[in-house]
């Protein structure tokens, strides 16, 4: 008698999932506060966005460290999706730091077009990482 066993699991563990939750929440929130600043010219929205980006960068850095450790020593070893996820987290970290530097500028130039584009890129990349990381893959194993 032959049986098919199907294994399905997300890519990230529980700690990495918690670390990923912060950039997924904070980068889109920073994008929304950038849009609010561009519509109202109230400087507090820009300050709020800067703090959101800084918080997202802290957790993205921790997630990047964890992803690199998993890539070289743990769960991601030899897995294509783990490498893609790690590269995207590194890109998100670099884009987030650039976004923080852009938002540290004074006045209108802190957000402007480039700051908004960086905020959009960070929000999209963070959501893309979450989709890739939590996409369940099925491995079919046959036993007799």
From TrEMBL:
Q: Does the keyword Transmembrane helix apply?
A: yes
Sequence ranges assigned to domain DUF2231 in this UniProt record: 14-127
Q: Answer whether the UniProt record assigns the keyword Transmembrane to this protein.
A: yes
Name the keywords, alphabetized.
Answer: Membrane, Transmembrane, Transmembrane helix
Membrane-spanning parts: 12-31, 51-73, 82-101, 113-135
The identity of this protein, by name, is DUF2231 domain-containing protein
- Native source organism of the sequence: Allopontixanthobacter sediminis
